[in-house]
Amino acid sequence: MTSATLRHAGWILRGNPLTGVAATGVFLLVLIAIFGPWIVPYDPIVSNVSQALMPPSAAHVAGTDQLGRDVFSRLIVAARLDLAIAVSAVGISFAIGAVIGAICGYTGGRLDRGVGRFVDVVMAFPLFVLAMAMVAALGNRVENIIVATAIINLPFYIRFARAEVNVRRNVGWVEAARACGDSHISVILRFLLPNVLPAMAVQISLNLGWAILNAAGLSFIGLGVKPPTPEWGIMVAEGARFISTGKWWLVAFPGLALMLTVLCFNLLGDGVRDILDPRMRT
Amino acid sequence: MAAFGATLVRAGRRFLSSLPALFGVLVFTFLLMRVLPGDPAVFFASGPNSGKEEIEAIRKQMGLDKPVPEQLMFYLYDVGSGNLGRSMMTGQLVTKDLRERLPASLELTLTALLIALVSAVPLGVFAALRQGSLIDHGVRFFCALGVCVPTFVSGLLLIYVFYYLLGLAPDPTGRVDIFASLPPRRTGFLLIDFLLVGDFDGWWAAFRQLILPALSMALFVVAPLARITRASMLVSLGSDFVRTARSVGLPWWKVVVTYALRNAILPVITIAGIVFSTMLGANVLVEKVFSWPGVASYALDALLSSDYAPVQGFVLLMATVFVIVNLLVDILYGIADPRVTIG
Amino acid sequence: MTSSLLELNDLHVTFSTRRGLVEAVRGVTLSLGAGEMLGLVGESGSGKSVTGFAITRLLDAAGRITAGQIRFRGQDITRIAGSDFRHLHGAAMAMIFQNPRGALNPIRAVGDQIADAITAHKRMPRDQARAQALELLRAVQIRDPQKRMAAYPHELSGGMCQRVMIAMAISCNPALLIADEPTTGLDVTTQKVVMDLLTGIAAERGMATILITHDLGLAARYCRRVVVMEQGRLVEEAEPKKLFRAPQHAYTKRLVAASPTATSRITDLVPEEERAREVAIQIVPRSPPAPGTPPLLEVQKLVKRFDQGDAAVADFSMMINAGESVGLVGESGSGKSTTSRIVCRLIDASEGEIAFEGKSIGHIPARDFHRSPFRKDIQIVFQDPTDSLNPRYTAFDCIAHPLLRLAGMRSGDALRQRVEECAQRVGLGIELLTRFPHQLSGGQKARVGIARAIACRPRLLVLDEPTAALDVSVQAVVLQLLDRLRREDDLAFLFVSHDLNVVRMMCDRTIVLQNGLIVEQGESRAMFDNPQTAYTRELVDAVPHIEPELAALANGAPVAPRRG
Question: What number is the ipTM of this complex?
Fold first, then answer.
């Protein structure tokens, strides 16, 4: 099965070059996140005030910030933190949300209604608002950012899984599975969830991009990550002070990093759906 | 006429069903702010250096020595009577602070939403009508990028371009020039208040301050709105009932507007509601970048100086606003789609 | 001699798909005179609908007329630009579609939609248009037309939506009306009413009509001439009587044989020439059951209520003996599907008893039934073969599934042997077992579903409209297969269907349901030849007979003059 999947993946990638580019981008990102600190040209933490606020040049590809640190090196190192926050948050909310949503969509009744109420309440809080409240309550730490992001995403996965399972639960082959001797739980876990996976995979990829943007936004306003830790959002925050005096590189390069990362995840999401859906296989 | 009555009934029913959500919001916030680790009395006391007696007094006043369900009752009573505590920073009642600052945030968000809708819907419609053309590809490219650029980055870059490079925009700090005079406060919306007094110079100045922050917030939501409009329009144009409309020879504009567009707009209404939630959150970012004196920057400053009463008030306010907006969107949708109200 | 209203000359239509260019219509030539009614018959993939869309210039963006000519009223309209075609749309030629509710604007009142069609070609004040719309609603015999003017499509039944579409189509008095499967999805009784209406209006207004359908009986009943298409080509053209008595082309012969009539038997379904290929049936001689043996399945006073309170099924009692085939017929909303699901223990009844070989199975809740030893004795074949196969399972996995769960088999040679055996019995080639559902044809998928159902050697097979989604020629083969399996395995059938001809052929006894209640039951042939209740008589009359004169004479009724 796996060799067929790989062959199919190759066929899809050849047909959709954009997806290939996006996949390469994500792969590079992961590499950078893992190996970043060892390959950077300059130390991302140590200050060197004599070199402060220099525009991009041959020596410093992305310029230096107000403490003389090389922006490019900080960008590379920051990838790890941003990616880690996003992956943990999305991973948690997907795992919990998908299962809860699937059970609700399949069973209906009081459980469904109760969970629906909970979902309504959580969805009433815009992310930043909730994150602020959580940070206020639990303390200004990175872990709480992850928890807040995971909770905010939860309703989304619950609703999505619920809707997808609901549509499929009366479909012929589900009834056939029951007639062939499967229990309800078996049907949910072994049949419905795997069939819902392609659609969810797209959402996960899109979600990862969104989670990175949010993590950056939260650290921009000062929640979670503290200086001198390199993180894309914090870098923009530190550079914001200097934008009115024309030091554009402090904002533009972290912004570019964010944009490219999110773009790759978004484009990849569409490609992933095509690969996992067996209907595309011939 | 019957349809109108049905809409009202439905609106009433939707309102009633959103009450549990509001209640849930209240309880959730309560749990968050008061039951979690940490001493809430210290949080809500009037200063970090307050003496033990004062903290004890606060504790008694807040009923923190009582069992949790009783605390909940007190809390609900407090919120119901408009007592959200006092801010350490401003020294005023939180309710008063919020009321002063809410119009600024609303003006910003609503203007941004208006700009976004006015740009996104026509773009999406044109892209769908000219599928495969340059406009279509351009729109899709723009949408793909638009969701990737964070609001705070675009805001800052806009400042760089329009203030620093081009010198078109005024100093991106606040709603009005420090030296300008404010109009008498009627609605709190500067654009409206200036108009009411007939002060066009003032109006223009306020507008110039508003445009950059509104634009940066709008940019972020134009992309999803244009995308959903385009997708929805494509579905609509390819549907069976549009084919029927063509088969009886309806003129092109009637097919596109009365048949395709009116159906296509339905999902856009729903998405607009969701997008509004994103914007309420993005408020925090934009107000920070442009030093906009709204409720979000108020709460943020309070948070970072460990002043928690404003944060609680802000959270409640935002959630309530969102529930109300959802209700309005629902009602609007019910008006637009008779399948919901009738039958 | 009627002058030709419409002429198609060697028409070719091509679609550009992901896999390259596909030619859907390959050289179709036909002509239609004014006021004439022509039947265009074919199965899926025949290109009949595409032809209709090509004539009215309503093809998908991916479709294109690549060769040939279409002449309307003597004028070549093949290459006219879309915008110029508009004045023909509705005023000269109109079209009605299948799925009538989907073809109407869901958020616009029906009266407004008809008025739109009227004002598209004639300028007039809105009230005048609405008044005319009201008249049109009367002409299509909608009850309560005044009230219906403000109704939305979702408030109307399928039949009413179709009438509204007809009203829209005839609003500007076109000379040509193309009806694309106008009665698919409608109940048999509604089907008759709509078709009678359509032919009546066409005759009244001297409108030429092309009836595109897969139902040969329907075309034969209402059309003066019938044209048969296969794979984009026109294979035969004749008057209905001649087509049925003496079909020329091999495909037509197969189609005629496969269309079940009031008198056909199962063996008639396949034409003479192809019968020799049938495998000899091994019938196990059935010894009569010892007296006192309980029937295979006994259902008593079944009631099913859904949340809203109204009973979907009430006071339903029946008995099936081993090896017997019982039919369950009814229109939509009759409760036949619900009953079949209850019998199969996929859902629970609200009241009533179900006993299998004398032992009660009704008391085991549906969610636990998968564990009961009776699970393998009652299996089900579903209506939509596409829907009923897990898209992520190969054909092999689908058939192996019940063997793994219910027969306790493990992966290995024994399993493989058994699966291949089942595949062979249903006529599915072994090489197809590694394919996924989307790589199989409709008929092949149906066979997989049947193989899966018989894998564990059940005693009772519930068949829920097993051939409704299949082409007629495929249906013929599948029905023969089912009949053979039944006789070989001494299987009992509960055959649920809306198609009376099929039920008459396949079932010893039949039960007629209406609104959840049993209306009549009895020996199939006798009941259909001589229905005792009004409803059953209505159902029987509504079935389009290929030779209405003969059928009418048999019933003693005067023969209605042939229209068209």
Answer: 0.81
